[in-house]
Amino acid sequence: MKKRIVCLTLALLMSATQVVSVSASREDELREEQAITSQQLDATYSRMDELAYAKSQLENEISELDSNLVSVMVSIDTLKGDIDNKEVDIIKTKQDLAKAQKARDKQYESMKLRIQALYEQGGDAAWFQMMLNSEDLSELLTRAENTQQMYEQDRKNLDKYVNTINEVNNLKTQYESDKAELEEMKASYEQQSYDLQCQIDQKKSESADYENEIAYAQQQATEYANLLAEQTAEIQRLEAERIAAEEEARRQAEEEAARQAAEEEAAAKAAEQEQDSESEEEENVEYDEDGNEIENTDDADDESEADDGVEYDENGDPVDNAGASDDVEYDEYGNVIDSDNTVSPDDYESEQSSDSDSSSSSGSGSGSSVVDFATQFVGNPYVWGGTSLTGGADCSGFTQSVYANFGVSLPRTSYEQQNAGTEVSYADAQPGDLICYGGHVAIYMGNGRIVHASNSVDGIKISDNAAYRTIVSVRRLV
Fold this sequence. Notes:
Elements: H1 2-120, H2 126-132, H3 137-283, E1 286-287, E2 293-294, H4 297-308, E3 311-312, E4 318-319, E5 329-330, E6 336-337, H5 345-375, E7 387-388, E8 392-393, H6 395-404, H7 414-417, E9 422-424, E10 434-437, E11 440-446, E12 449-455, E13 459-463, E14 471-476
């Protein structure tokens, strides 16, 4: 009989397995799709980090170019002032040159008149006439001295004006040369200014392209994160349905097995009782002297009932009245509930609360050790694919290396770590738990804070808002 019950149970379980096989197949497909989505999300976040770093470098270059452009513009303004000053000097020099030329012409005309008069009065013989006309030697010497002084004065004035004209001409030439040089420098600076502005415009355009790419990548990441959340919710729903179906099938199998066992036991008892009844009837038959059977069934039945004290129902089955006065309860599977040995709900809740407090205290202490160990590496660099807590690590490499210090072995990638340990709700998260996002993982510190290898710009850091992104799962490892 036991073999028949076992076979029936197995048959029902196999039937239940076929019922949930379709759901399990869809669940496996969703897990594969989830893995692909997570990889795409990881790649998108990596691309966003690369774009953000490139944009940051480009903005530094733009800032440097802006600084250079400001310097060039200041130089251009300075040159404009110098050129204006040179223009004033050139105008003044031209005026001085005009005055010198006018004075030179006037002196030249005066000298021509004196020379003309000198020659008109005798030319080479003028000196001889001047001597003859002199009354005495003193007058002659005086006249000669005066003539010599006049000559020397004219000569000095002529030399002075010639030097002035030459100096003014030289200044004019120098000023014009300086102005030409300044104009050339101004043109050069203006060209540099134009080139710098073109470079700035080009780099700003590239920066805008990076901004657009980052925005598009962010949109993709949001879509992947939403899809990942939908896939996770669908997997959880299918898993819950599968577990419920398996439990229901198991319950039905147990009920059917219990019913079948009860029927077979009742049939066996009925057959046994029937055999006993037939045997008793044969023993109680009396015969007369001729060998004929004497019918005395009523008395025999009454006597039989009186002898064995067994009562039977309308189908001839014995009724078991033993313990009928006892207060016995049964569960849905036909098992006796011993009310004298049950645990009251208050005792159970108290015991559960005590166990929960003990577990929470133990887990929190151990998790706090993980947090204390992890936070000492804050400020170290983020390195894609790295696992070094001092030389550089990515998000999953950081958590893997931290937990390795406590003897906990974690998978390498953030997606694989989503299935490590035991899942708990975020509301029940404790220090040391893993907070898993789409393509990212962090260590929970408590009070809504996390420590994680964030990105190539911030490195390993502490964030105050653990829910800054969609939380896919919370895993308890210690």
